[in-house]
Design brief:
Blueprint: H1 12-26, H2 31-38, H3 42-49, H4 57-67, H5 72-83, H6 89-96, E1 101-106, H7 117-129, H8 135-151, E2 159-165, H9 167-170, H10 176-190, E3 195-200, E4 214-218, E5 224-229, E6 234-237, H11 240-256, H12 260-273
Parallel strand pairs: 1-2, 2-3
Antiparallel strand pairs: 1-4, 4-5, 5-6
């Protein structure tokens, strides 16, 4: 029987696989037996143990249940998942989950916190087709977004102020079967008592102060942090001397954007115009 030697120090993924093998063998389970109890094939378990396949959150939770490890595998998965996120984003998400006010500006796509599962899935699947991520990572991406959204459902939800570039509602993702429910989701969001939704129309031209998406969070201490991304790097800014000018620019963006009533009308028109 060929047995691949594992190096848990090679990567977080390798450490996860080595732990899974060690605990499986301590309980005298074969890969097939463990896979059957977890709802996976023995081949899938082997691929995770040897690092040929990334573990998913679902697999980590089932491993914890089957092997009696509490939430050890889930915590290891989350640590591994955060290691693959852009710099600054894991800390940003922690702040996001307890912020009292969230200000978002987005271009090109609907902001993640407002995406339907179907819209998010289309974006993730597109990344799989381009070879940017694996199918397992696509599943994790969609699950992670759902967890972020769920964290905002509280007895006292944060105030959310969202400005979207007009391109967000004009760019069709997934065809009308995905886009129409997504636009409906925006209209529902705009009706909430703790939200403001505005569209920055193409017509504001050079008066648009931002060229990249921007997130601004007001924390319970009333401190404001900012998060922005390039294609390959994220940055969380805490220094008030850098954040306050961004907040001023955001106020100017809100002044240039359409009021919520006109923004809602534009979204309704976009929905009616979808094939």
């Amino acid at each position: 029987m060929n047995r691949k030697e594992l190096d848990p120090d090679a990567s977080p993924q390798a450490a996860f696989g080595a732990r899974l093998r060690r605990l499986r063998e301590e309980q005298s389970l074969s890969q097939v037996e463990l896979g059957t109890q977890m709802g996976y094939s023995g081949t899938h378990v082997s691929a995770v143990e040897t690092g040929r396949k990334l573990p998913t959150l679902r697999l980590a939770r089932r491993a914890d249940t089957t092997l009696g490890t509490g939430d050890a595998f889930e915590r290891e998965w989350r640590d591994m998942r955060q290691g693959s996120l852009l710099e600054g984003f894991p800390e940003y998400v922690e702040h996001e989950g307890r912020a009292v006010e969230i200000r978002l500006y987005e271009t090109g796509i609907i902001p993640g916190l407002l995406q339907t599962p179907e819209y998010a899935r289309c974006l993730a699947n597109s990344a799989v087709r381009r070879g940017s991520i694996t199918p397992e990572q696509a599943d994790e991406r969609v699950t992670f977004l759902a967890e972020r959204q769920a964290a905002l459902v509280r007895p006292r939800p944060p105030t959310m102020l969202v400005v979207m570039d007009e391109s967000c509602i004009r760019r069709e993702v997934g065809g009308p079967d995905v886009m129409k429910p997504q636009l409906d989701r925006l209209l529902e969001f705009a009706e909430q008592p703790h939200t403001v939704l505005q569209v920055a129309p193409y017509g504001i031209g050079e008066r648009r102060p931002f060229n990249l998406p921007l997130n601004l969070l007001t924390l319970p201490s009333m401190a404001v942090v900012a998060y922005a991304e390039s294609q390959i790097r994220g940055h969380l800014e805490r220094d008030s001397a850098s954040v306050l000018p961004l907040l001023t620019d955001y106020h100017q963006l809100q002044a240039e954007a359409l009021p919520q009533t006109a923004s809602v009308d534009m979204i309704r028109d976009a929905r009616r115009g979808a094939p």
